[in-house]
Amino acid sequence: MTTSRKIVAALILPFAAMGIAHALEAQDALGKKALAGDYQAQRNLAYSYVSPRNGEMLNPVMGCAWYLTILNSGSPKVNQGDAGNVEVYCNKLDAPSLGAAKQQARRLLSEISKK
C-alpha cells in the first residue's frame, strides 16, 4: 500500500468507526423508546434490524421479533401494514430462527407490559 493510501485509510477508518458507533447508539436509543411502548420507535427499530443503514446491526430474528411484538401489542395504531411486515420479514426466517423470534417477542411483550 502506498503512503498516500495509508494516510487516507488512517483518516477514514476512525470516521467510519464513529459512524457505526453512532448507528448502534441510535438503535439502542430506539430500543429504549420501543421498550417503553412507543409504537413508532418499535416500527423504526424493527426496520433497522431487517434493513440496516450506516453501520446499524443486521438481525432479522430481532426484526421479526419486534414486528410480532407490535402486532400483538394491543396498540390502537396497529394496522394492516404491521401484519404485512410480519408476513414479509418473519416468513424469510427458517423454522429455528422463527421460533427464536417468537420466543423473543413473548419476552419483549412481557417486558413492555411491566412498564
How is this structure best described in words?
By secondary structure, this protein is mainly α. The chain has one domain. 76% of the residues lie in helices and 0% in strands. The protein has helices at residues 3-35, 39-50, 60-71, 80-90, 95-113. The longest helix has 33 residues, at 3-35. The protein is globular and about 30 Å long. Residues 7-23 have low confidence and may be disordered.
Shape: globular
Low-pLDDT sequence parts: 7-23
The span between the termini is 55 Å
**Can you give the helix content as a percent range?**
over 70%
**Could you give a short account of the major beta sheet?**
none
Our estimate of the beta-strand percent is: under 5%
Q: Write down the overall mean pLDDT.
A: 85
The total domain count is 1
Pick out its properties.
5 helices; 76% helix; 115 residues; mainly alpha
What's this model, at a glance?
This protein is mainly α and 115 residues long. Helix content is 76%, strand content 0%.
Ordered list of secondary-structure elements with their pairings:
Elements (H helix, E strand, L loop, with lengths): L2 H33 L3 H12 L9 H12 L8 H11 L4 H19 L2
Helix pairs in contact: 1-2, 2-3, 3-4, 3-5
